[in-house]
Amino acid sequence: MTTNDGVQVSVLGLGAMGSALAAALVRAGHETTVWNRSPGRADDLVAQGARAAATAGDAVRASRLVIACLLDHASVHEVLDPLAGDLAGRTLVNVTTTSPAQARELAAWAAEAGVAYLDGGIMAVPHMIGQPGSSILYSGSADAFAQYQPLLDRWGTSTYFGEDAGLASLYDLALLAGMYVMFAGFMHGAAMVASAGVPATKFAAMAAPWLTAMTGGFHGYATVIDGGDYTVEGQQSLEFSDLGDIQRASAELGVSTEVVDMVQRLIRRQIDAGHGKEGFARIIESIKHPG
């Protein structure tokens, strides 16, 4: 069965994420062709109604819309470079994780080949695809996004950032940076309380609402950063934010201080430059100007 919009789509790459993307399209009734370098990965999708292509070229030629969800930037070129002629006149949506520079390079490659290009950053894990909370960021061809947004929305909330193909990747990696540093901070705390025999699950029950509440401060920090004035009243000063007590307590417990050392270095750099009375948001200057 095909959907009312009649869009046929091919998905290249059937790892955990590619399989989830393809399965969501099959469930929505799209005529979906799938291909994977390793045999056997398509079996479950075929049982659900997808069609397996013997080669990547067969998959590309089967649809006007091609989704690439491959291992890395090099893999995209390895698979698609020989198929540039077949891709001409089609739309390529690349949701392979790339850097902003790599996304822009692929967009230029696609333009040279006569391919409409969208780059995507998936802000979800595979089981979230097609469910509430799944979000995918896009940048590149505005026409391609407008044409295929109803299909892309099958995966999650679609957000378009403009013609610069590197912006989706930029936002994706920036958001992941915040996530991983936050997770590392949680794990540091869990390691500290573990010294007293506290299970990580018990610590998580306290950490989750605390950290959630603290994210409410993002807007205030952002306003200060955008204004460029770190002396605005109401901010916690860098001197007050010093993490020396956390470092000492961690060391006394035999816990690595690597996570908090990183933040402390950013704080101390600004204090040592004479900005100790200014707000904590000023550490962004240590990040933006590491020299």
Structure description:
- The chain has helices spanning 16-27, 43-48, 56-62, 73-80, 84-87, 100-113, 142-152, 167-194, 200-214, 218-227, 244-252, 258-275, 283-288; strands at residues 8-12, 31-35, 51-52, 65-68, 91-94, 116-123, 135-140, 157-160.
- The chain is of the alpha/beta class.
- Helix 8 (167-194) crosses helix 9 (200-214).
- It is elongated, with a radius of gyration of 23 Å.
- 36% of the residues are buried.
Shape: elongated
Radius of gyration: 23 Å
Instruction: Give the biggest sheet.
Output: 8 strands, mixed
| Beta strands, count | 8
Q: Give the N-terminus to C-terminus distance in angstroms.
A: 59 Å
Count the DSSP helices: 13
Q: pLDDT under 50 segments (min length 5)? A: none
User: What is the helix/strand order?
Assistant: EHEHEHEHHEHEEHEHHHHHH
Coarse structural class: alpha/beta
Strand content: 5-15%
Report the average pLDDT across residues: 96
Oligomeric status of the shown chains? single chain
Percentage of residues in helical conformation: 40-55%
Topology, pairings included?
Elements lengths: L7 E5 L3 H12 L3 E5 L7 H6 L2 E2 L3 H7 L2 E4 L4 H8 L3 H4 L3 E4 L5 H14 L2 E8 L11 E6 L1 H11 L4 E4 L6 H28 L5 H15 L3 H10 L16 H9 L5 H18 L7 H6 L3
Helix pairs in contact: 8-9
